[in-house]
Design a protein that fits this description.
Helices cover 87% and strands 0% of the residues. It has four helices and no strands.
Length: 146
């Protein structure tokens, strides 16, 4: 084995290379995890109320370690609560729409035309989601619980 400045320099290069690879992996992992969480959040938002019951059931089943019988009993109870909450939400929706229309009109007074257009797009996206929530509520009322 060769000792001396050249060997030490080679060792530092190797360790430096390993450190660079590690840091790059850490950065890529952080960015990928953040992108995944953003995607999941957006997906849950787009699912709206239709995605709530499966998430609640998955969470309760996992956290409480429910047996099959308990899971079935919970499913019935959560389905009823979901239907009740949907009826309540749909009943309140006209009031929510009224408040939002007033707020958006007030906000537009402080925005540039470009910003107003973007705000309108966001509001339209929200209205589309609420329309899918209303359709889901009607589907629940019309047939058996999924």
């Amino acid at each position: 084995m060769i000792d001396g400045p050249r060997a030490q320099q080679r060792d530092w290069r190797i360790w430096g290379g390993i450190l660079v690879v590690f840091v790059c992996g850490l950065l890529v992992g952080t960015v990928a995890t953040n992108a995944y969480h953003n995607y999941e959040r957006q997906h849950r938002w787009e699912q709206g109320l239709a995605g709530l019951k499966p998430r609640v059931m998955k969470h309760l089943t996992h956290e409480l370690h429910l047996s099959d019988d308990q899971r079935h009993a919970f499913d019935v109870i959560v389905s009823q609560a979901e239907a009740d909450l949907l009826r309540l939400r749909i009943a309140q929706q006209p009031h929510v729409d009224e408040v939002l229309v007033k707020a958006i009109a007030a906000l537009k007074g402080t925005l540039s035309p470009e910003q107003q257009t973007k705000l309108d797009e966001q509001y339209n996206h929200l209205q589309t989601r609420w329309a899918s929530d209303r359709a889901y509520a009607l589907q629940l009322q019309a047939g058996p619980h999924p």
